[in-house]
User: What shape does this take?
Amino acid sequence: MNALPVLIVDDEPDLVEALSMLLESAGYEVLTARDGREALALLRAGAKPGLVLLDLMMPVLDGWTFCEIRAADPALAAVPVVVITGAGTEAAVRPPVGPIERVFDKPFEVEALLAIVARRCGTPDR
Amino acid sequence: MSWLSTSHTWRDVAGRRVARSTVGAQLLFALVAAVVGRDELHRTWVAGVLVAFAAAMLAALVVTDGRAVAWAVVVDLVLVAICAAAAFGLASSFSLVGGGALFVARVLLGKPSMWATFAVLLAGVSTVATLFVTGVLPVAVPGAGPAAGDPTAWARTTFTAFLVIAVIGQLVDVVIAQMEASVLEGEEALRRAQRAIRARDDFLALASHELRTPLAVLRVAAEGLESERVARTPENLDRSIGLILRNVERLSLLVARLVDAMAVQSGRLTLNLAEVDLTPIVARVVQRFDALAARTTVIDLDLPGPVVGRWDPVRIEIVVQNLVANARRYGEGGPIRVSLEEDRRSVRLVVRDRGQGIAAADLPYVFDWRLRAEATPAASGLGLGLFMVRAIVGAHGGTVQVASEPGHGAVFTVELPRWTEGKRA
Assistant: This one.
């Protein structure tokens, strides 16, 4: 398995489970975090995801703050981020800091998400 | 002395105008009576009494801040009529009382209407006609009028002219008041409509946000299976079915809550009352939370046995559910205590948590519909929970109160009358 793992950062356990099942079935290793703080902890502990799927509205540390911290930290700035947002205009009204691969509005098309994951993390061997 | 100030509602407008013009007219009559009264005795006491009444009415209005308008005017008019009869004869006093009574009716009955304006016009015309018929109003043309040299004839003419001017003035007053009232009403209606539209927009934005997450879960789960991107292993099938069922349930609950919230907003929440026992409802909700929380939060129950009353069981369950959910959300994992107390007339549901509590400054707004679009930490849902608690309890004729000391948790107390007649929220 040569593909990079995917990090899902979302406080909705059901969405995390559904996405994990989808990505694991495709052969990806999935890391999960319930909020921005857990995600930062994982990244600083050495996790090297090929892509972060980031929710914006989360408790403890939200997606916007996560992006600010990412942009300010050279060690994290290179991690590609896809935003998955609940409110359609949320990301447009208040765009997160730093480069964002793409913004997906819930509910989003599964194939489009898989395509971007494949582009960033590679295609798993099997 | 707000009754003298710029008014805010039609009732204030009408009430204050009537009060002001009545006091003014009274002083005018006092002056006229002092000059043209039948004899010295009448001139003195009628004028004196009228001035005293005007002063008393002013005092009453000031003391009651204008609330005594209607009754002050009623009492006043009767007294003015008696004095007018004494000074000028019975006939003119009838038309005075008639006109005055119509004013009072206008203040008491409500909006200044076309009918009120018409009634005042009629009173004015009848007053003048009565004065003609009774000879109080002479034709004040030199040489054609009453005996030359009769000084009271000129005085009566002057009085009548004053009276006619007063009636016309009052008529104009009514018309202006009516116009002012419609403008004020229009402005208020516009403000209400704008507030409602803003609330609806915020609500729709938030509602769509809340609906999108379960929809996203459904789409990922269903599309994953359909495209076989998710391997159809027995384990994955079970997980997917679980996800789908849970999120369909979540969507249904959300929609039901939205419909209820909209009913409350538009004042259309109607209760389905039945004789129910509160104890099993509370027990059921707590049991559900126990299962959900996998017993990470301890919920103590203190139930006295059957607590029977006439309530809407579905709505009351929502009340219990929202209060316990709120305690869990802000209780920081500490123990929650749910208790029921009862007496003959009412029952009390008390939910106490041991969390951070609520800052004193926030207490008055706890039951407001808090829009959480600002991404407050630890918050999810529509921010409707406590708003709905208050609406439902209020619809039952009950009350809900919150007490909290920061750092020592919060206590929510719902008091429900046992046999509610049911009111609209």
User: Anything to note?
Assistant: The first helix of chain A runs from residue 13 to 25.
